[in-house]
Amino acid sequence: GKERTTSGEGRERKAGPAALGLVRRTDRVVSGSHLAPLLGLTDPGFSDCPDLKMSRVTTALGGSVLTGRTMHCHLDAPANAISVCRDAAQVVVAGRSIFKIYAIEEEQFVEKLNLRVGRKPSLNLSCADVVWHQMDENLLATAATNGVVVTWNLGRPSRNKQDQLFTEHKRTVNKVCFHPTEAHVLLSGSQDGFMKCFDLRRKDSVSTFSGEATEAGQGTPREWVMTGCCVLRLHPSFAHGFLWRLYVAAPWGTLPSGCSKGAPRQSESVRDVQFSIRDYFTFASTFENGNVQLWDIRRPDRCERMFTAHNGPVFCCDWHPEDRGWLATGGRDKMVKVWDMTTHRAKEMHCVQTIASVARVKWRPECRHHLATCSMMVDHNIYVWDVRRPFVPAAMFEEHRDVTTGIAWRHPHDPSFLLSGSKDSSLCQHLFRDASQPVERANPEGLCYGLFGDLAFAAKESLVAAESGRKPYTGDRRHPIFFKRKLDPAEPFAGLASSALSVFETEPGGGAMRWFVDTAERYALAGRPLAELCDHNAKVARELGRNQVAQTWTMLRTIYCSPGLLPTANLSHSMGKGGSCGLQLMNSFNLKDMAPGLGSETRLDRSKGDARSDTVLLDSSATLITNEDNEETEGSDVPADYLLGDVEGEDDELYLLDPEHTHPEEPECVLLQEAFPLRHEIVDTPPGPEHLQDKADSPHVSGSEADVASLAPVDSSFSLLSVSHALYDSRLPPDFFSVLVRDMLHFYAEQGDVQMAVSVLIVLGERVRKDIDEQTQEHWYTSYIDLLQRFRLWNVSNEVVKLSTSRAVSCLNQASTTLHVNCSHCKRPMSSRGWVCDRCHRCASMCAVCHHVVKGLFVWCQGCSHGGHLQHIMKWLEGSSHCPAGCGHLCEYS
Amino acid sequence: MAEGENEVRWDGLCSRDSTTRETALENIRQTILRKTEYLRSLKETPHRPSDRISNSESSDGLNKLLAHLLMLSKRCPFKDVREKSEFILKSIQELGIRIPRPLGQGPSRFIPEKEILQVGSEDAQMHALFADSFAALGRLDNITLVMVFHPQYLESFLKTQHYLLQMDGPLPLHYRHYIGIMAAARHQCSYLVNLHVNDFLHVGGDPKWLNGLENAPQKLQNLGELNKVLAHRPWLITKEHIEGLLKAEEHSWSLAELVHAVVLLTHYHSLASFTFGCGISPEIHCDGGHTFRPPSVSNYCICDITNGNHSVDEMQVNSAENVSVSDSFFEVEALMEKMRQLQECRDEEEASQEEMASRFEIEKRESMFVFSSDDEEFTPARDVSRHFEDTSYGYKDFSRHGMHVPTFRVQDYCWEDHGYSLVNRLYPDVGQLIDEKFHIAYNLTYNTMAMHKDVDTSMLRRAIWNYIHCMFGIRYDDYDYGEINQLLDRSFKVYIKTVVCTPEKVTKRMYDSFWRQFKHSEKVHVNLLLIEARMQAELLYALRAITRYMT
């Protein structure tokens, strides 16, 4: 099969969109367990949700039935937030200039009440947030952008339903939240860094929580007056509230020095506050600096726990309705994280990476792992994620034309209705059955080449099973191995995941790619004259038994480094070489023909291949002549005599020694190697020498003898000195050979030997670059660099990047090459120099052997983190296996 | 004389390795000596007229070198370089060549040189900053020397600027400097223009472009309109502006490029404000920063006067201070008292909603009348910036035009939630850097006010910040704009308004007449607030337009 060659070359190909989580594997495919989970995309995403396909759901509450369809209605102004009444039949929409209640009916939204009354609307009505009490259908609260918290009583007989006004916050209030079970407790979080708890029967707040407060256990414990009394449970005492009042002032008076007496220091803004649904006294608050705090409502002096959840502001949080202690947070860093707060330290359970900052997050009712998110910028869609499947959203609602600002599940026990408000001035009801499911559009098959030519293929099990009757398309050297995905009992999708992974391995004996590594390491690409580079590379190729490549290099050398300025005597000398070259090749034919163990077909192929290389050679000897003029005009920068000396030395070795040494080995090589030469005929013959080739190939059946016979006279005629320069000068265009070389490069690249293509490209530089279009070059470069990196040949890959002329490729070296070093003493980043810390003024990297500062290469043990000069450590570890610092660690140098 | 041989390479001096610097300096010395020899030989031998041109040319080249050396001897953070450069200059002088001396008095015309940190006396942290800056740019500019009053901010500022100009980004390097020139030229800030003209040429920019915007590629010309609107009336930016730039066929900008350009424009608009607001003097090695004339006996000649004569000015200021020392003392006291009052009675006295709304409008309208009447000491625009001027377009008061432009409400589009995300999406990491810079500028405090310690200045800082945003028509719902009137007196408002809107008109008198008892470092601090608030205001308008275009 054709695959063998490409895989043998170590080329990597991928099938299917890369975005779907097909990771690029850098090592050998060993087992199926790595790839298999990636294919879990095909699993039904809503497996743990009841009755997806039904929009008619009997809810746990009173057996009432929710019905409806996907619908939307136009609002007069952009919405900032929405909230649903507990009867699931009404929704309130609030924004800068809108505050309305809509009834959700079967077919449409019906405006029920406009709460924005009065001729001159005040800023108190400019709402940043709205919340509907989950116990009392008449009670609403809004957070105004000017820092006022307003409560609304729908039961009031007058047109103005405004109930109470709390003007304690100095800055915009971002969030209000009712206690889930307590009728009169309202919590607010504001830009000024404070959270306030209000008792709706009182005129002002009962307690204030400062985001600046220290975590419990860190701050100095204060006198605690209300030990152990459950104030919230006992309504009467709560109403008194005077005890609480004590604490309102307390943290202010004890601010650290350096702050003014009057006002507390500006603390980080509070973005969200949420009462825990399960824990009566607990609420969570999120901050602009990325922190999340956990508070006990009874203890305003300090938070119970604080941790950094996100990089940048945490815009929202939501407690899981059922799982006690699960908190989902969403931040500007585009992440949704699920924390387990029951353990001593908040533990990150899941993390979902979205494509834009997360503005709201809401757990989906009745679906333990689902949550809905919407974004604050750019992205207008609402996503429902399965937190265990963080790469592809389970469902997506695409109705809105501007950013979604508020989302709410219609009923706390119904997973299929989602309401949303948006900046595009519309209110939507989304039905799950109408959601688009990105999973369905995902490609469920994955294909990946391993570094050593192994091929892994994964697909739906059903698909594989259906095809199992068919024979794998690989040759006899391949051993198809089928893995069935191991079912992980902990994995909730057990039994549903149905992907199968097949791995096709190359023949055992991993040295198959050894030549690639060797070649990459030993090739010289720049820094020397062209002729020398070609010779060097030819030598390398020959030593690795890749004769065709070696020959190509030699020919390139001949083409491009014809000693144009040489005196005639020398010219004749090298011409004579050309002749001997032809002779030598004929020898090789004969040898091969006699070699046993080659199938007749192979032999034919082989001879054809050689015939081709002969024609190339012919051309090359022609260049000797045509290029002369070019060289003269260009003025070769290579000293003539230097070049000449080189010609003599290397040529002799190549052409005179070869017949004895390499040829006896050649038949073996052909068999053992991955045998690229065998593949020659697959590739289209280059258009350049076609006419010649045709001539040569015409006596095709007659075999190599005929080829040689027909070629030999031509060859000799070309290599004769008597050929006049003028003849060829006039007939061949100057860049005649660049076409040929271009085809040669394409040929190698097609064949899978992108290494050769890139190496030649670099070595020849300007001479051929213009003939190959930018994109192809870039493609070759990136493929080669990718391969090199997979083989961990970082230095080589870096050199290639450096030498490349393609802009996109050289950009690779400009990006993410920063290495950040932290000081080993103060753990701060060392910004200016790598060896001295600016902050603690100490030399961070001392050599454990010589006790001097290490500048340059520093090697250290990952076990004990001691290290020093590379040379010193190497030397030390030759004699001792213990750490030179004397820490007793058994260091290992590899 | 082969030019390549005499090309001086300064980049070796930026190395942190002292031996590298040493060799680089030695090379420079050799080159200069060669040039000197050449000049002398020309002088001695009678020459043909054609030689005179080359003579003046090469002496020009030499003078440039000497000016650069002078700059190094004063401003290089590395002591060895300073000393060696001075030594070279001295030795040249001994050869009978005229050497330059610095003009003016230190990095700022407003701040006495003795108040400003001397290079060489900085502490380790500042030295690290200086070294970083020097390594990146090959110079330590006057802006840096003034900003170093606030090292914490300076660090963030330099990091951002370095990232914008030198690191990975969608725009090619010469475009970046050119955009910097365009932006600075809007305010006729010849200081920044000169700096960036050098940088522009250094990164291989085409000198022809410097003859005016019409010589630049169409793509950059298209940016001119946005530059103009952004600098003077950002509230007029609409998504049509953005669309016009993004959909101009072969000259169109990509979104990432546009964001980069917008960030650069706003950065340089506000930096121009800083330059004028702190009276930054020309760099020593640039035109107007040095003179080859020997100091005259009377110690001030005509050119010194145009540069704002030091001694006379100081005398005036001193006398003014002496007279009004008690006055200004009370100024601070009164300000403190007002802050205290506001703090205390905020809870009690609650303004009605209508009043709150009208206070913003009043402040907005009043900011219109706040303008200085004196426009003496107008710095004439220098060569390059002249080509970019379009004086027909300047700042027009928001309020005068605000009738049909709705107020920008921060609660609907703010930097933290919206701007940041957009910038970071299109130009990764820059959002983070600018965000940090805003934060540092906004929260920077030493809890001091003039001679008082342990003062909470957050109220004052917020008033300044919001006042600037108010001038751009940006309103905070949760702010009582009455506070501004209480806290900022008229002369201060004049200064703020001038620095932010028409920085080229700032005078030393304005600088001196506000907050007379305050320290210079505090005035620089005010400037930092001004420029960051201005930058944010411009960014908000531009980014909102981009967001609107995208949706």
Written account of the structure:
The complex is a heterodimer of chains A (894) and B (551). By secondary structure, chain A is α+β, with helices and mostly antiparallel strands. Among the domains of chain A are: 71-117 and 309-437, Methylamine Dehydrogenase, Chain H (7 Propeller); 443-465 and 497-505, no CATH class; 524-558 and 736-814. In chain A, 30% of the residues lie in helices and 22% in strands. Chain A is built from 21 helices and 37 strands. In chain A, the strands form 10 sheets. In chain A, strands 1-32-33-35-34 form a 5-stranded antiparallel β-sheet. In chain A, strands 4-31-30-29 form a 4-stranded antiparallel β-sheet, with no helix packed on it. Chain A has a 4-stranded antiparallel β-sheet with strand order 5-6-7-8, with no helix packed on it. In chain A, helix 16 (754-764) crosses helix 18 (774-790) and helix 18 (774-790) packs antiparallel against helix 19. Chain A is elongated. Chain B has 551 residues and is mostly helical. Chain B has one domain (102-289, 346-550). In chain B, 62% of the residues lie in helices and 2% in strands. Chain B has 24 helices and 6 strands. Chain B has helices spanning 3-6, 18-44, 49-75, 79-94, 124-137, 142-147, 151-166, 173-186, 190-202, 218-232, 239-246, 255-277, 302-306, 310-345, 353-369, 383-386, 398-401, 415-426, 430-443, 458-471, 482-487, 490-501, 508-513, 520-550, and strands at 101-102, 290-291, 408-409, 448-449, 452-453, 474-475. A two-stranded antiparallel sheet of chain B has the order 1-2. Chain B is globular, with a radius of gyration of 25 Å. Residues 1-5, 297-324 and 372-383 of chain B have low confidence and may be disordered. The A-B interface holds A 78, 96, 120, 122-124, 126, 128, 144-147, 167, 169-172, 191, 257-260, 262-263, 265-266, 288, 312-313, 315, 332, 356-357, 359, 376-378, 380, 401-403, 814-815, 831-833, 838, 841 and B 16, 124-125, 128, 131-132, 168, 340, 343-344, 346, 350, 353-354, 356-357, 409, 411-412, 416-418, 420-422, 425, 435, 443, 447, 454-456, 458-459, 476-478, 547, 550-551.
